[in-house]
Write a structure and sequence with these properties.
Elements: E1 4-7, E2 10-13, H1 18-26, E3 31-34, H2 47-56, E4 60-63, H3 73-85, E5 90-93, H4 98-107, H5 114-123, H6 132-142, E6 144-151, H7 155-167, E7 173-176, E8 181-183, H8 188-191, E9 202-204, H9 205-208, E10 213-216, E11 220-224, E12 229-232, E13 237-245, E14 250-251, H10 259-262, E15 268-269, H11 277-286, E16 290-296, H12 306-321, E17 327-333, H13 345-354, E18 358-361, E19 363-369, E20 374-381, E21 384-391, E22 394-396, E23 401-402, H14 405-408, E24 434-436, H15 449-467, E25 474-475, E26 480-487, E27 490-496, H16 518-535, E28 547-548
Parallel strand pairs: 2-5, 3-4, 3-5, 6-7, 6-13, 7-10, 13-24, 15-22, 16-17, 16-22, 17-18
Antiparallel strand pairs: 1-2, 8-9, 11-12, 12-13, 14-23, 19-20, 20-21, 25-28, 26-27
Helix pairs in contact: 1-2, 3-4, 7-15
Length: 553
């Protein structure tokens, strides 16, 4: 019996015998789909018997029975779900293979031209010409086309959608993100120091979704900018006029050997996770003596100052409690400098010395043994890299951070895996109707919420220009802000753009970024959360209006 290939993932066949199942397994098939109802003719093996034999051979099985000539949209949806979720390659069967071919065509009608499906079926000796009207109707019904598709419902994606709709409410926008919760991540440093509670940094995603967008609660799985489409994990395809990619990045905990097995216990914590930041504060409160290690991985990472913020606030708590002299604090930074913008280093070094911190540069955390409470670092010494072990009582880890695999493998990615863009306009260098911002963009600015706050209006007005067939009209100077919490009540407010250029927002008499100030702490503790929730995510842009190209800064 011939197994006839329809596409790379599926073949079809007439009724299978039990012996055919073993042959299918030997030929490399991983799933069987039965599209034939039981009892159509005498001697027909029942689906249960086929299933048992399939499972005995290590194959997945699904039964989607269809009466001949009666296949409809619900059947096509069921087949689409099976094709999207079952291990491939798949072998589907019915009495002759025709029903299975029909269902395959219906399942793929939303992301393939009817003519192409009919041609592929004909290559397998199945004539689906009469099915073309149904395929056309199904393709139209399943078509999901928008003026703007935004991939990512984090700070950057939500702010961009809100900014677009503030300017042009009639633009059709889809936001693609499966998250149920939305987090104010800059607040997690404060949670780790007992200033905020974790609950203060979280809201339901539904509560921050801008009115007027269509929220698709599913993950994206691929970009096809040559076809102006985004692929979704559930098998659907979105078509856009303009794409805004704001997928964020991925915390690669697995790149540090042994870390995942011990996170949240054995004194190992991280303010880079909502559920772990409270554990940081607990560990800080409980530690009275011993060794506390703080790590920072190679760039790029979210908020390059956050690793040392956790350390300074912990030291301040220990100082207030009178136990700091009994605690050996080490900061292991994979980079060659304490902070990337030299202007702010002197103020930070004062706190390194004040707290008695052992600053270990070019020292990268590579392994953690939680049971032994030992951390292993790869350190550069005299031109060579050596591995050293350090015992600890508390270890605050910042994980390596990378682009999502499906982004890195897409046509939009730069060599780094992040999305390639022109840094001033945030437009893709090859695809003129694609923009990217936030942590997922391959820009050289600091990856901070403050950066996204400034980027979103620039992308919004450039998207509207693109919808009108015009070139970008606004540019971004690389602004990022890093409020370095050096002690409770004082912050060194680092504000800078591309190339480390200083971009202060306030006059020096109010906030001097070269020194710790109480005014900057008030900004961080009281004003910035409100600006985030009620300004940035609502399309309000105080101190964030887009700079128009050709106008004075």
């Amino acid at each position: 019996m011939a197994f006839k290939q329809l596409d790379d993932g599926i073949a079809v066949s007439p009724q299978l015998s039990l012996a055919d199942i073993g042959r299918a397994a030997r030929e490399g098939y991983r799933s069987i789909i039965s599209n034939r109802p039981d009892g159509e003719e005498a001697g027909q093996p029942k689906a249960a018997a086929i299933q048992a034999e399939a499972e005995r051979n290590g194959l997945a099985f699904a039964h989607i029975p269809i009466v001949s000539g009666k296949a409809g949209d619900p059947d096509g949806d069921a087949m689409a779900q099976a094709l999207a979720t079952m291990p491939k390659p798949i072998l589907a069967y019915c009495r002759s293979g025709a029903r299975s071919t029909t269902l395959w065509a219906l399942a793929n009608a939303d992301n393939a031209e009817p003519g192409d499906l009919i041609r592929l079926a004909a290559d397998a000796d199945y004539n689906l010409a009469a099915l073309e009207p149904a395929l056309q109707r199904r393709r139209k019904a399943h078509s999901m086309t928008y003026d703007v598709v935004i991939v990512g419902g984090g700070a950057a994606g939500i702010a961009t959608a809100a900014s677009i709709l503030k300017r042009q409410p009639k633009v059709t926008i889809a936001i693609v993100d499966p998250a149920t919760d939305h987090y104010y991540q800059p607040g997690w440093t404060m949670v780790g120091a007992g200033v905020f509670t974790a609950e203060q940094t979280r809201k339901a995603e539904a509560d921050v979704m801008p009115k007027g967008v269509e929220w698709l609660r599913v993950a994206a799985s691929g970009f096809d900018p040559d076809r102006n489409t985004v692929e979704l994990e559930d098998g659907r395809t979105l078509t856009y006029r303009v794409l805004v990619a704001a997928p964020g990045l991925r915390l690669a905990w697995e790149k540090i050997e042994g870390l995942e097995q011990t996170l949240g216990r054995n004194g190992v914590t991280s303010n880079y996770r909502y559920d772990l930041a409270p554990y940081t504060y607990r560990l800080v409160q409980e530690l009275k003596k011993g060794r506390a290690l703080f790590s920072q991985p190679p760039m790029p990472i979210k908020c390059a100052g956050a690793p040392q913020k956790a350390m300074y606030l912990s030291c301040d708590i220990w100082r207030e409690a009178g136990v700091l002299p009994g605690i050996d604090v080490e900061f292991h930074n994979a980079g060659a400098v304490l902070f990337g913008v030299a202007h702010y280093v002197p103020a930070l070094m004062e706190y390194i010395e004040k707290y008695g911190i052992d600053l270990c540069l070019e020292s990268n955390l590579v392994a953690v043994d939680g049971d032994r409470k030992v951390a292993t670092f790869a350190q550069k010494k005299e031109g060579e890299t050596v591995r050293i072990e350090r015992g600890f009582d508390m270890l605050h880890v910042v994980p390596p951070q990378v682009s999502h695999d499906w982004v890195a493998s897409s046509p939009l990615a730069a060599a780094t895996g992040f999305i390639e863009v022109d840094e001033p306009t945030l437009r893709h260098k090859k695809y003129e109707n694609v923009f990217a911002l936030g942590d997922g963009a391959a820009t050289s600015n600091a990856k901070t919420a403050a950066a996204a706050r400034k980027q979103a209006p620039v992308v919004a007005v450039n998207v509207l220009a693109a919808l009108d067939g015009k070139p970008p009209v606004a540019d971004y100077d690389g602004y990022g802000s890093c409020p370095l919490t050096v002690e409770r009540g004082k912050i060194v407010l680092a504000e800078f753009g591309y190339g480390g250029k200083l971009l202060p927002s306030f006059p020096r008499w109010f906030i001097d970024g070269s020194k710790p100030t109480r005014a900057a702490w008030y900004l961080k503790e009281r004003l910035l959360p409100a600006i985030y929730w009620h300004g940035m995510l609502k399309g309000r842009e105080p101190m964030a209006a887009p700079h128009m190209i050709g106008k004075a800064a």
